[in-house]
DNA sequence: TAGGCCATCTGGTCCT
DNA sequence: AGGACCAGATGGCCTA
């Protein structure tokens, strides 16, 4: 329930005089601006009982009018308790900020691998997620059908459920011809995993440099590396680390692009499917870690992904199952 | 000016 | 006990 402070300026003075706001830049800024948001003030009336006798009286008066509170009586806020509480709250706030920053970083990584990444026109969080969903869906369709959709229908797939402005952005990006999508991506601030990738022999190094040109060629060229980056963006860092700090150790690509691309459907002779973009990626393959090969499940079957790269430097947490999860969605 | 988006703080819940 | 995660609340900023 919302707890608001009726006297932000008093609270600000009180709080700042006790020095705990020094650790809360955000809160401090708010105080300067006379911001009276729920923020750090919500708790203060209760916290300041001890320190402001006038307010205490006020509260007692109010309590006299209200029905008595049920439940265990609140422990009295001793100075020590107050200090501990504040320290805890400050720490929790900092953690929450960090957590949200990590979330935002992850979203930024996701934005970068979207087919219409624009530095100037940033997709909102919700639109980024929607576009990502559509993008995965579109790529899955390509894998399942083995057909590259024509430019228009690909755009339509991507724009499903998106707002008009975002749809325009996507359509514009995919239809304006040469788009320095990946160039831009690499030139700017390469994600940690991306720069780490440079040391490995991932296939698309030998491809024509972006910009890729026509819509068709974009569709063809875009997918594998973009998909790779997408997965990396999602799983590139340690899964338990929500703040996704730059990973500086050996790279752990859940899926790499190198060697011969071949998707085999288990137990079927004509397993080898020819994918349109294979022509453009003669050396494309999906590979897992552990040196045991990897596989993923799609709605059309189980795919064996041969290992044809060396994994000496790969960490053990591969994303074979995670990749499978993507296709099972 | 309304509405969308965002960052931040907060308290509750769950988990280790 | 403490951390992670979550949803609610709030105010700031921006744009149509």
UniProtKB/TrEMBL annotation:
Gene3D superfamilies assigned to the protein according to its UniProt record, in alphabetical order: Helix-loop-helix DNA-binding domain (4.10.280.10)
Keywords: Activator, Developmental protein, Differentiation, DNA-binding, Neurogenesis, Nucleus, Transcription, Transcription regulation
BP term (GO), one: positive regulation of transcription by RNA polymerase II
Annotated InterPro entries: bHLH_dom (IPR011598), bHLH_transcription_factors (IPR050359), HLH_DNA-bd_sf (IPR036638), NeuroD_DUF (IPR022575), TF_bHLH_NeuroD (IPR016637)
Domain of life: Eukaryota
Domain BHLH: 87-139
Record's compositionally biased regions (Basic residues): 67-79
A cellular component term, taken from the record's GO annotations: nucleus
Biased composition (Acidic residues): 52-64
S-adenosyl-L-methionine among keywords: no
Region span, Disordered: 20-79
CDD domains xref list: bHLH_TS_NeuroD4_ATOH3 (cd19721)
Subcellular location: Nucleus
Example of a GO MF term: protein dimerization activity
UniProt cross-references to PANTHER family, sorted A to Z: BASIC HELIX-LOOP-HELIX PROTEIN NEUROGENIN-RELATED, NEUROGENIC DIFFERENTIATION FACTOR 4
Name of the protein in question: Neurogenic differentiation factor
Gene name of this polypeptide: NEUROD4
């Amino acid at each position: 329930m919302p707890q608001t402070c009726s006297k932000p300026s008093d609270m600000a003075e009180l709080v700042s005089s006790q020095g705990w706001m020094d650790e809360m830049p955000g809160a401090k800024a708010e105080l300067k601006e006379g911001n009276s948001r729920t923020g750090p003030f919500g708790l203060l009336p209760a916290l300041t009982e001890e320190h402001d006798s006038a307010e205490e009286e006020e509260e007692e008066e109010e309590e006299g009018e209200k029905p008595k509170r049920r439940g265990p009586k609140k422990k009295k806020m001793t100075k020590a308790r107050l200090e501990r509480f504040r320290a805890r709250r400050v720490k929790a706030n900092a953690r929450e900020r960090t957590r949200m920053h990590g979330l935002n970083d992850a979203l930024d990584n996701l934005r970068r691998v979207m087919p219409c990444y624009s530095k100037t026109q940033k997709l909102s969080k919700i639109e980024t997620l929607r576009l990502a969903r559509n993008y995965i869906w579109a790529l899955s369709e390509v894998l399942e059908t083995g057909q590259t959709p024509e430019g228009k229908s690909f755009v339509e797939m991507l724009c499903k459920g998106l707002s008009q402005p975002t749809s325009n952005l996507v359509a514009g990006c995919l239809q304006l011809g040469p788009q320095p999508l990946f160039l831009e991506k690499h030139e700017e601030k390469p994600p940690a995993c991306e720069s780490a990738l440079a040391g490995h022999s991932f296939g698309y190094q030998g491809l024509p440099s972006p910009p890729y040109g026509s819509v068709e060629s974009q569709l063809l060229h875009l997918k594998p590396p973009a998909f790779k980056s997408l997965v990396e963006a999602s799983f590139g860092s340690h899964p338990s680390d929500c703040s996704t700090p730059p990973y500086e150790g050996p790279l752990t690509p859940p899926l790499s692009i190198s060697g011969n691309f071949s998707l085999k459907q288990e137990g079927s002779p004509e397993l080898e499917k020819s994918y349109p973009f294979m022509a453009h990626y003669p050396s494309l393959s999906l590979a897992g870690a552990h040196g045991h090969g990897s596989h993923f499940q799609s709605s059309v079957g189980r795919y064996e992904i041969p290992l044809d790269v060396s994994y000496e430097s790969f960490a053990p947490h591969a994303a074979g199952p995670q990749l499978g999860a993507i296709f099972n969605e």
